[in-house]
Amino acid sequence: MNIRLLLAPRWVRWLVMVALMTAIGGPLWIFLMPDDGSDWTARAVQIPVLSIGVATLLIVVQERFRQSFLAVLDGLDATQRRQAIEASQRGAAPTEAPVLSAAVRLCTLLVGTRLRTPTWARWVAYLVPAGAALIAVARLVDHDVWRAIAWLAVAVLMAVIFWWDARTLRRLQQQLNLLRATAASSLGEVPTLAESEYPAVTPSRKVWLIVVGVVIAMSLIASAAAYLMERAQPGHGITGRSECGKAIATLAVFSEREDLTNSQSILPGGPSLADYEKWSNEIRTRAAQVTRSDLAPRAQHIAELSGQAVSVVRETRKVQGTQREQLQQQVVYAKLIAHMYDEATVVLDVCHS
């Protein structure tokens, strides 16, 4: 944690955290959400709600640390406090006795707080980036490039944060050794901290209750905001939007595999026949979930056309025809894909009307 930000007024910290989380977490949130066919604005409206909620949680959780740091600096004027904070981070040891004593105690508190981190929390530094990287690989295998990039960004971001924290701890330990040596020679003793001056490792029951309350409120507000935005969309109510979501999810499965919709890829050397069959089966599964009378026939027709397209690929791979015959198969395949896109256009027009 940044000591200057931690000791800043609560409203300043809150605004800074909300801004950072919105700028960094917002794009990631949009890309990490599952593709359920919902409008991106319904997702975007959740971002400030989540940023405000998480920032509020951090303010509450960090309060016990803030009070411990302020107690160490108690009795110093603004200039002395700034010098003590700077000396606890880096640079030469201060010469003024009260400032040096406060710098030693503050640096001791910074190092001690980090070293008191529970073992399970330290494992998070390894498991979170590794888990995000594995999800990124899984998304890439499924040809979901954008979400793979988003998860990879999460992995890199978390790895950098944890690496920077470990680097900061090493630097603080070196600075603490310097301050203690200076204090021993100039003050005759090394200032220490009592056990009671350290912040509690585990949040109090009151803090946990506040955290649970904020999480519940944040979830309700985000869900309500997304619901109201969807209701405000022209056309259908919540049932209709849900059906459109299912239909659009069918279109997403069909269109996201550009390598499979390209007629040139059906020749030997392109994607495997198993890829085409998996693609068609997933389209059929998604289409079967659409039940609304003005959408279901379109979705089912797209599924049927995908099956015909797979048959063309199977025939092309089974019999090595002449160049002319292969070209004819590509033309047939291209017409099927074009027909699927025509049906997809109708679905989109219905859902966006």
Largest sheet: none
What percent strand? under 5%
Tell me the quaternary state: single chain
Low-confidence stretches are 233-240
| H and E string | HHHHHHHHHHHHHH
Q: How many beta-strand runs?
A: 0
| Structural class by SSE content | mainly alpha
Task: Report the mean per-residue pLDDT as an integer.
Answer: 81
Q: List the total number of helices.
A: 14
Helix content: over 70%
Instruction: Please state the CA-atom Rg, rounded to the nearest Å.
Output: 30 Å
Our count of domains comes out at 2
From the spread of the alpha carbons, the general shape counts as elongated
Terminal CA distance? 49 Å
Organism: Mycobacteroides chelonae (Mycobacterium chelonae)
Transmembrane segments: 12-32, 44-61, 123-140, 146-164, 207-229
Protein name: Integral membrane protein
Keywords: Membrane, Transmembrane, Transmembrane helix
Characterise this structure:
The longest helix has 42 residues, at 145-186. With 353 residues, this protein is mainly α. The chain has helices spanning 3-7, 10-32, 40-44, 46-72, 78-89, 97-115, 119-141, 145-186, 205-232, 238-256, 258-261, 273-288, 296-318, 323-352. The model is unreliable at 233-240 (pLDDT under 50). The chain has 2 domains: 3-226, no CATH class; 236-352. α2 (10-32) runs antiparallel to α8 (145-186) and α6 (97-115) crosses α8 (145-186). The chain contains 14 helices and no strands. It starts with a helix and ends with a helix.
